[in-house]
What we know:
Layout: H1 7-16, E1 20-22, E2 34-36, H2 38-57, E3 62-64, H3 73-78, H4 81-84, E4 86-91, E5 98-100, E6 120-123, E7 127-129, H5 135-148, H6 154-167, E8 168-170, H7 176-180, H8 183-190, E9 196-205, E10 220-230, H9 235-252, E11 260-264, E12 276-284, E13 287-298, H10 300-309, E14 315-317, E15 322-324, E16 327-334, H11 335-346, E17 347-352, E18 355-360, E19 371-375, H12 383-394, E20 399-401, H13 407-417, E21 421-425, H14 427-432, E22 434-439, E23 445-449, H15 453-461, H16 470-476
Parallel strand pairs: 3-9, 19-20, 19-21
Antiparallel strand pairs: 1-2, 4-5, 4-6, 7-8, 9-10, 10-16, 11-12, 12-13, 13-16, 14-15, 17-18, 21-22, 22-23
Helix pairs in contact: 2-11, 5-6
Bound molecules: glycyl-adenosine-5'-phosphate (GAP).
Amino acid sequence: MTARVDMDKIVSLCKRRGFIFPSSEIYGGLASCWDYGPMGVELKRNVRDAWWRTIVHERADVVGLDTSIMMHPGVWAASGHIDSFTDPMVECKSCHLRWRADQIENQGCPKCGGELTEPRMFNLMFQTFMGPVDVKAELSGALSLALGGPEVSGVGVAKLKEQLDRATIYLRPETAQGIFVNFENVVNTSRKKLPLGIAQIGKSFRNEITPGNFIFRTREFEHMELEYFVKPGIDEKWLDYWVKERFDWYTRLGIRKENLRLREHGKDELAHYARACSDIEYLFPMGWSELEGIANRGDFDLVQHAKASGRELVYYDAEVNEKYVPYVIEPSAGVDRSVLAFLIDAYDEEEVEGEKRTVVHLHSSLAPVKVAVLPLSRNEKLRPLAKEVHKQLCSSFVTDYDDSQSIGRRYRRQDEIGTPFCVTVDFESLEDKQVTIRDRDSLAQIRVPIEELNKTLEAKLMGETFDASPLWATREK
Length: 477
Ligand code: GAP
C-alpha cells in the first residue's frame, strides 16, 4: 500500500472513471453539490445495501421505514431544531467570506487574515414554502406598498405574515425525526417487542456554513440512521454494543483498523438532544474526522413529540405490566461520507513491471462491477464466444463487456474502478472452451472451463482465495 492519498487524486479518479461529477458542470457547477456517475451510483447502492442487509435483514429486532422529506413544521419546533440546530457564524469584514466560529483557531479570517464580526447563530435548516401561492413575494410586495403609503393596512400585512408562517416548511436535516413520529405506528403494526430498532436511509439537507472536502460535507447528503429503542437503565450497555457493531462493519468491508478510531464527545460538544455520543473517526486526507456518530438520545425526542402532539408516546411492556418512554441509541452514518472513506482506503498506486498501476481494492460486495469480460482483441472470431460468456455471467453478476483499446488499457480501467475479476477470452478459448480469470489484487491468473465459470467466480467473490482453485487443479490432472 502506498502512503496516504491526497483528496485531489480521489476527485480526479472519480471524474475520470465516472464515479462522481460536479453538479450542473456545464453551467459552471454549484458549490459543494455533486452527481454520482455510472460507477458512483453502483458503489453508493452497494454501500446502502450493505448497511441495510446488516442492520435490517440480518436482524430480527430491526425494521425499516421510508418517511417523507417534508414534514409538519411542528416536528422541528418540538425536536429543538428550530431553536438549537445552529452553528455560530462569523464574517470577514475584508473579504466577506463566512466561517464557523467554532472551527477558527485564531482570531483572524483563515483566508485573508481580516477582522471578523461577532458570531451570530445561523440555523442550518433549509426553508421552503408549501402551496401554490407565493406568499413570500406577496408579503414583500405588500410590505413595500405599506412603507410607501396607506394602500395596505397593518392588518393586511399581519395576515400575510401569518400565512407565510403557516406555509413555511423545512427540508429535513436528519431522517431520525420521521422515525420518532412513526414510533407508535411501527410498534402497533410490527408486533415486535423492545429492544426494537427502526432504520431509515434517505436524503437530508443542511445549509452548512463551510461545506467542502469533496463529498465529505455537502448541503444535500444521504443519511443511514438507526433509532434503537430500549428500556431506560440498559441504554449504556446498548450504546457500547452499537459502537462496537458499527466499528466492525467498516472493518469487515475493508477499511483498515489503523485508519479508524473512536472519540467520545465531551459534555460541552453534545448535540442538544444527546446524553452521550461517540464518533467513529476516519483518517481522511485532511486529518481525523467524523465518519459516523453513535448517540444516546435518551427519551428526549419521544417526550418532546408527546408534549407537542398530545399523543402518549410510550411503550407498554406486557411481561411486567409496565408503561415507559424508551431511551434511544442512534447510530447515524452518512452514505456519501462512507463512500468517500471506502474509496480513499481502497486507493493504491503500485509499480508493476516498471509501470505505475492505480488500483482500487474495494471489497467485492462494494465494487461497482464484479466481473469484466475482455476478449483479447477485437478480432471477429473472438466476439461470439466473448458475448456468450458475458451473457452467461450478467444474470448472476454485475458484468462489464469491453473490447476497445489494448488489453493492458482495459485492465487498467477495470483496476481503477475496482473490478475484482477480469475474464479474458483468447484464441485458445475457441478450442478448449476455457477462459482466463485475472485477480485484481494479486494479478494471478487461472484458466477455468467456461461451464464452471459462474460457480468459480461466485466462490471467489465470496472470499475463496485466488490461488486455491480445486476445479481447475482437478481438471489439469
Ligand atoms: N441524527 C443524528 C445526526 O444527524 P450527525 O452527527 O449530525 O448526527 C451523522 O450526522 C452523520 O451524517 C455524520 O457522521 C456524517 O457521516 C453524515 N453527515 C452529517 N452532516 C453531513 C454533511 N453536511 N455532508 C455529508 N455527510 C454528513
